[in-house]
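--- STAGE predict ---
source: upstream dedup step, 1 unique chain passed
mode: sequence only
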Amino acid sequence: MTCGYRLVTIAHPALPREGRLICGPRPPRPFHEGVAALIEAGVSTIACLLEEHEMPRELGAAYEATALEVVHFSIPDFGAPPDTLALSVFLDDLLRRLRNRETVYLHCFAGLGRTGTVLACLLKVAGAVDDPVPLVRAVYDPRALESEAQQRFARAFSPRRATRPG
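--- STAGE serialize ---
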């Protein structure tokens, strides 16, 4: 089955080799076919960055109709994560899943801004030391990290300095 949308397996030496990280956009309609393509690609966990109002009920139902585990970390469209401490916990969970041989699919709506931002932070937590913006654009998509706010956040993010907003 071809999925009709771009799924990119992220290859970087900082990431755990036991699992597989795939990034891309929200599955397209009809959602059951897009989700079936993810399952065919070996995905076991969906890491969804959509805000609640962006999540179609039909997509949620397509996820629920499968054995996929879905974890959410909502980020405003074109924005940066509002809570660095919660982001650090989310990233640690993704790394744990990869170490446990899971295949994780990370997505927002278009798969560029928020997905690129979280991928940049995940690579930093995993030990990558390069500037995260060109790194993500090289290993994933040259259009990733769409906004200046996302680029600034990714460059400044440090899991050791993570704090709650406010």
